[in-house]
Specification:
CATH superfamily of the largest domain in chain B: FAD/NAD(P)-binding domain
CATH architecture of the largest domain in chain B: 3-Layer(bba) Sandwich
CATH superfamily of chain A: Beta-grasp domain
Oligomer: heterodimer
Strand content of chain B: 25-35%
Number of domains of chain A: 1
Largest interface: A-B, 20 and 21 residues
Largest sheet of chain A: 5 strands, mixed
Number of strands of chain A: 5
Shape of chain B: elongated
Strand order of the largest sheet of chain B: 6-3-2-10-22
CATH class of the largest domain in chain B: Alpha Beta
């Protein structure tokens, strides 16, 4: 289908599922998770201020570089690994077809 | 009345844009408002987080900086002389004998009014707590999320964790106060002011503090009071640090806060309201702006303005049950005290 990619997301119980994601609606991964009612709060609305959309990137896709704001946020988040990103800062685009992500644990 | 007590018509919890505009809509039918906010200045996240960001969806403003919008709102409501209690966190709510509500803040202020508007936005900004199983049992017993009084650390062993400006600044400050100071950071690089980073590295090089990077705290120990931490280093494995205090400084995160315990209907960190007048399940308490939820809710400032306006109509009926509210356009009546 045009303007639709498939993104695989592993929830916090370890279940992996594939989701159709539109690439023509200016959406990000946090918004995608919320639209499928995955347990992602997205408290700050996508301003890289809360880390409630913290995900691990499991596949080798090339993503946009994290901004200073995102890095600063990840610095004060927990359960952070080398492949950590904030879902709200990953814009859905055609080149991300097949992207595999896992939701990071929720923390304070 | 005692100086820590005040009466008003509407207690507004949260002095963000929606709380501020509620003062205007309440002021038209001459309802008095008293605003409380945990932050030290009005404007909520617009002032605290993104004052220099342009907002594009305020009707009539093709673009307005968040900080400017707040200043404009303050000017717009000035004629109604709202009271502000800033730096106060609304802690509890109780029903008075006469049916009005009493809100008590963490600093002991008591406000009484027939109506409460909760305009709390994202909620209260609270310290982000490390995910350590037994952290709750050491709070105030060796764990401090803020440095309120540096003197409590005098001649004590202190461990600070974090990599931002506050971790660096307090490391520099407490290096002179504590008997031993350790700074633990998950990475090698620090994301703070360069000057602070250099000072911390200098303190570490001179042996004044101990700097442990690429490591995180994984466990807490102590019988009653904290006396030690487990630290896991990326390559060196796990070791223990004996300490009197642990100060995790990982910034603030918005939490619903005490309002979550007020017996209001809550859905995923937001207060449930109806869309007739944005009343909660509890008569006399309304929730407006980002803190509320209802089918179709959009977290937009302009939607909050609308919610505040409708809530004020019902608030009037509660404050003045015997009076009839007649709706008037501001173009007809003008605003007393506002230059025309």
């Amino acid at each position: 289908m045009d303007n639709t990619i498939i993104i695989s997301i592993t929830d916090r119980e370890g279940n992996e599922k594939q989701y159709e994601a539109p690439t023509d609606m200016n959406m990000n991964v946090m918004e995608l998770c919320k639209s499928y009612e995955l347990p992602v709060e997205g408290t700050c609305g996508g301003m890289a201020l809360c880390a409630s959309c913290h995900v691990y990137v499991l596949s080798e896709h090339e993503l946009n570089e994290p901004s200073e704001d995102e890095l600063a946020m990840l610095d004060s988040a927990f359960f952070v690994k080398d492949n950590s990103r904030l879902g709200c800062q990953i814009r859905l685009k055609d080149s991300l077809d097949g992207l595999r992500l896992a939701l990071a644990p929720v923390s304070g | 009345m005692h100086q820590d007590q005040a009466e008003t018509d509407i207690i507004i919890i949260g002095a963000g844009p929606v709380g501020l505009f509620a003062v205007f809509e309440a002021g038209l039918p001459k309802l008095r408002c008293h605003l409380i906010d945990v932050l030290p200045q009005a404007g909520g996240q617009l002032t605290e987080i993104y004052p220099k960001k342009p907002i594009y969806d305020i009707p009539g403003y093709p673009s307005v900086l968040a900080g400017d919008l707040v200043q404009n709102l303050l000017q717009q409501i000035a004629p109604f002389k709202p009271e502000f209690s800033l730096g106060h966190r609304a802690e509890s709510v109780a029903k008075c004998e006469d049916g009005r509500w009493k809100v008590i803040t963490d600093r002991g202020l008591e406000l009484v009014a027939p109506v409460i508007f909760i305009a709390g936005g994202l909620g209260c900004f609270e310290p982000r707590k490390p995910p350590l199983e037994n952290i709750g049992q050491y709070e105030d017993k060796g764990i401090e999320y803020f440095v309120r009084d540096p003197e409590i650390f005098r001649n004590k062993r202190v461990v600070i964790a974090g990599g931002g400006d506050s971790a660096l600044d307090w490391t520099i400050y407490l290096a002179e106060v504590a008997s031993e100071l350790v700074l633990i950071h998950r990475r090698t690089e620090f994301r703070g002011a360069l000057d602070s980073v250099e000072k911390v590295q200098h303190l570490a090089a001179s042996g004044r503090i101990r700097l442990v990077t690429n490591a995180q705290v994984t466990g807490l120990h102590g019988d009653g009071h904290l006396d030690g931490l487990d630290v896991l280093h990326d390559t060196d494995g796990s070791f223990r640090i004996d300490t009197d205090y642990f100060v995790p400084l990982f910034g603030l995160t918005p939490k619903l806060g005490p309002i979550g315990d007020w017996g209001l209907g809550v859905d995923s960190n937001a207060v449930r309201v109806n869309t007739f007048d944005y009343a909660t399940d509890v008569p006399g308490i309304f929730a407006i702006g980002d803190i509320n939820t209802y089918p179709g809710k959009l977290k937009l400032i302009l939607c909050g303005f609308h919610e505040a306006t409708l809530a004020c109509q019902s608030a009037f009926k509660i404050v003045h049950p015997d009076k009839k509210l007649s709706f008037k356009y501001t173009t007809v009546t003008g605003i007393e005290g506002m230059p025309s």
